[in-house]
Amino acid sequence: MGDxxxxxxxxxxxxxxxxxxxxxxxxxxxxxxxxxxxxxxPRRDTKDQAKRLIAQFGxxxxxxxxxxxxxAREGLSDGVVAALKIAEATALRLLExxxxxxxxLSSWDALQHYLRAAMTHSPVEEVRVLFxxxxxxxxxxxxxxxxxxxxxxxxxxxxxxxxxxHGATAIIIVHNHPSGxxxxxxxxxxxxxxxxxxxxxxxxxxxDHVVVGDxxxxxxxxxxxxxxxxxxxxxxxxxxxxxxRRRSRPR
Length: 251
What we know:
The protein is α+β, with helices and mostly antiparallel strands. It has helices spanning 5-22, 29-40, 47-57, 60-65, 68-73, 78-97, 108-119, 152-166, 186-202, 220-223; strands at 126-132, 138-146, 170-176, 205-212, 216-219, 241-242. It has a 6-stranded mixed β-sheet with strand order 2-1-3-4-5-6, with helices on both faces.
């Protein structure tokens, strides 16, 4: 096909037709990226570049999750970077709408889909806090810091300060393990215990601490690890499991 504008235009028309008739599943990952690239490079064949980027980043998820600076270092233009990032932002916004305005504890599957999409492919550890009102409705969803959680005391103060600012009565803390293994570390247990302890004083419930891995997660609430006894952290080693509906949630 090369760089012939006519061939490229015809190919994209066929991709559009398949998309319109068959929906998102009608296109392969590299075809989705190919079409995104075509929005920024309208008169070039982008198939080979799409395949190369997916191979280089390890999949469409890590590609879209890569930050703009990393993408730019690969020689991608501002227009191409913007096309990739707007696709990620749109996907996350769509998933966010499925948890907005609903009690989160009764929308757990939708929440897990959003959290995995937002955090699984990050190359660094990220911590996100969901702030809830008395009806367990989402007030705010904030990515609070990047990096490890070993400076637990400082992070507890930050989280509780934000909770009080939002008028939240409950929180869910979530972070990812870039290694793909969602097994909580000792620091994860210590942070959770300190959050629970601080929350008891301030009247802010810690409903869960969820560690997200590669297609899996570990829930402190499910494992019975929500406690304020720092000396007992960490608890028994967790049982990683595939995402499924929770058996029970704290009230």
